[in-house]
Amino acid sequence: MSTDLLEGLDEQQRQAAETLLGPVCILAGAGTGKTRALTHRIAHGVATGVYAPDRVMALTFTTRAAGEMRTRLRSLGAAGVAARTFHAAALAQLGFFWPQLIGGRTPEILPGKGRMLGQAAESLRIRVDTAVLRDLASEIEWRKVRRIGLDEYARIARTRALPNGLDLDQVIELQQRYEDLKDERRQLDFEDVLLVTAGMIDAEPWVADQVREQYRFFVVDEYQDVSPIQHELLELWLGPRTDVCVVGDASQTIYSFAGASSDYLLGFPARHPDARVVRLETNYRSTPGVLQAANRLMRDRPGALELRPARPGKIDPPEVTRWGTDAEEAAGIADAVAERIAAGTRPEQIAVLFRVNAQAAALEVAFAERGIGSRQLGGTRFFDLDAVKRAVLELTSLARTGPELPMYETVADVARGIGWTVDPPAGQGAVRERWEALGALVELADQAADGTTLASFVAELQDRQRAQHEPTVQAVVLATLHSAKGLEWDHVHLMGLSEGLLPISHAKGLEAVDEERRLLYVGLTRARLSLSLSWSAEGLRGRPREPSRFLAELRTGSPGGGRRGSR
Question: Three-class SS of residue 85?
Answer without folding.
Answer: strand
